[in-house]
Write a structure and sequence with these properties.
Strand order of the largest sheet: 6-7-8-3-9-10
Number of helices: 11
Distance between the termini: 51 Å
Shape: globular
């Protein structure tokens, strides 16, 4: 699977003498099994990009390619694309509407025209993938906790067997345990099922822990496309565009300035703990 944006731009007034661009000349490719994060301050263009990837918006110039085919070509089946590139919106529990969890998860496969038995097989497999027990099948989705509702919404997309899963702030409003639960599940899906993931997030800590590639938008342009560690080395430049590095990165830099021989590229608490223990061992040896 390859999902490519090729020199895409979008303007609400493309015929104006000086068009104002929401997205300008952005190119990148998402491939099988990649776990990518997309960050940027409000108005940076990331929400527009997400809608390009799923075919919900068409760029005013450039191409969006799925496995080499232009998804906005005259005969391209966008319905099929949206089965292959699943989009889970922010507060996905607002997408739930059926009487039971099983019916809600079956909705996508039903719209695909699959036989009833195949719908149920896919829905039950999706429930298993997101950690929802069989006993939940007949429950109302509205009886569940916030984190469980997110799992149902994600399962509804997974039941269509997507090759790429786009998650727009999937942990918004959840407590830390619920956030880690959802993102841990998504990480496992990417690792075990080979599903590509694009995570839109405002949490640098989540990006540092879960993503292997980080795309950074600013004023409609792609300013970084690299590993999170390499991007967060530019924390001062990120601050200039209204972003930041994980808090632990700032702690590491502060310790470095105090004379500690610490790797200031650490991004997570686990990495910082390992570095601090190493320093103490070396000082006491």
């Amino acid at each position: 699977m390859e999902l490519t944006l090729k020199n895409v731009s979008f303007s609400y007034n493309p015929d104006a003498k000086e068009p104002k661009y929401a997205v300008k000349d952005v190119s990148f490719t998402i491939r099988d099994g990649e776990f990518c994060a997309l960050i940027g301050h409000t108005g940076s263009g990331k929400s527009t990009l997400v809608q390009f990837l799923n075919g919900l918006m068409e760029p005013t110039s450039g191409e969006v390619l799925f496995n080499g085919e232009n998804i906005f070509g005259k005969k391209y089946p966008l319905k099929t694309l949206r089965q292959k590139v699943g989009l889970v919106f922010q507060y996905p529990e607002h997408q739930l509407f059926e009487e039971t969890i099983l019916k809600d998860i079956c909705f996508g496969p039903k719209n695909m025209g699959l036989p009833k038995e195949e719908q149920l097989t896919r829905a039950r497999h999706a429930m298993e993938l997101v950690g929802l027990p069989e006993s939940y099948e007949e429950k109302s989705p509205f009886e569940l906790s916030g984190g469980e509702k997110r799992r149902v919404a994600i399962a509804g997309v997974l039941a269509m067997s997507p090759e790429c899963l786009i998650l727009d702030e999937p942990t918004a409003g959840l407590d830390p345990a619920g956030r880690d639960d959802i993102l841990g599940t998504v990480r496992e899906l990417s690792d075990q099922e080979g599903i590509a993931v694009v995570l839109v997030s405002h949490s640098m800590e989540d990006v540092a822990v879960y993503a292997e590639r980080l795309l950074v938008m600013n004023s409609g342009t792609l300013v970084y496309d690299d590993t999170p560690r390499n991007v967060f080395r530019h924390y001062k430049e990120l601050e200039e565009i209204g972003l930041s590095a994980p808090q632990i990165t700032y702690v590491a830099h502060a310790l470095k300035e105090k004379g500690f021989d610490i790797d200031d590229s650490v991004m997570t608490i686990a990495e910082a703990k390992a570095e601090i223990l190493r320093i103490f061992r070396e000082r006491n040896s």
